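Entry for 4'-deoxy-4'-aminopyridoxal-5'-phosphate complex. Fields follow.
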Amino acid sequence: MKDDDLNFDKRHIWHPYTSMTHPLPTYPVVSADGYELILTDGRRLIDGMSSWWAAIHGYNHPMINQALHTQINQMSHVMFGGITHPPAIELCRRLISIMPVGLECVFLADSGSVAVEVAIKMALQYWQARGEQRFEILALRQSYHGDTYGAMAVGDPKNSMHDMYQNYLPSNRFLHIPTRRFGENWSKNDALSFSQLFFDHHKKIAAVIMEPIVQGVGGMHFYHPEYLRLIRMLCNQYDILLIADEIATGFGRTGKWLACNHADIIPDILCLGKALTGGMMTLSATLTFRHIAETISQSKAGCFMHGPTFMANPLACAAANASLSLLKDNSWRQCVETIAVHLSSGLAHLSLHPNVKDVRVLGAIGVVEMIQEINISQIQRWFVEHGVWIRPFRNLIYLIPPYIISKEALMILIDTISGALNQPENFIS
Ligand code: PMP
């Protein structure tokens, strides 16, 4: 890639959450293989991010590649209105058989945010069909569910997205998450404050939405499973739908197949995305129970009112089918457990560092929370110079590597983080 290309990129192309006047640097990747990203100049970076939770099998996986080649020779896309096709049918069959029993009606869409929009719309239409005026969604403080409007409206109002679009967003209600974290002792008192909210407002609440156990963008918090269990119980008690956003946590990332499994609960509506295709294509799935789907279908409209152009894209479904085949033998479990052990032992000593607030690990997620804000462009450059791809945000350096990463490569990621902490210029004092 020429300098000219990079200048063009800088001048004309938006990147996620990046200024067009003072853009953060971008690094030119020309290929990716296994757990490595390869830059134009030939440098290989060990990937600590799985392209934001998605590339769980690593990159360029021969089986997923093969599935895509086979599918592309059949058809890359066809509309889903009035048409169906084998990759979608296979995928939905598979999802129904591997997701909690009863979640048997599947809506396939383009991205995680859209899966959340679909889930919210399902909940609203469900109550409309039942003749009840329920227009609020209850969400959690520090939550994040995507960047589209419905999804933003259930993200923590304290984050800047709410401030900016406030006059256009529906207003929802938010619960404080209890301070007890995953692995700590639970006290019944932790739940008192929010039980009251259910009691006072349940007649207006269509659904509760939550990221089970792990709140990602909101701060990489791991909260107590008992909280999730309690919310499930309150939803049952007050007849409120529970939406689980497993877009980041699904498919084993937290050490369980779904993060909901930590609390042994089943949501009424489940959102999947990211790793659904092994990170190869964009695709999401929203699953629900038949009685909910049937109630929605009895609403005034007579159907669920959503139908994206690229719904159930055959290529994306083929990638998802190949990815699910790779997960079928359960070897992910051993991989995630091994990563968890190395992350725990490798990162533990960093908690003694004077600038580190906290170190935590759950499954194949390792987090180093700093006291200071991170100088993102500086630390990113430092990481790239040291051969790794890690993209921190705010005061959080975190690792969510592909499940297939080797111990040696994981140790390099960990040691590089350790080295980065001793470079004052990587932080904003
Ligand atoms: N929910 C959660 C928990 C997420 O982490 C994300 C993406 N970061 C989304 C929803 C939105 O997914 P997408 O970026 O595919 O729209």
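NOTE: Residues 3-61+331-428 form a domain with the Aspartate Aminotransferase, domain 1 fold (CATH 3.90.1150.10).
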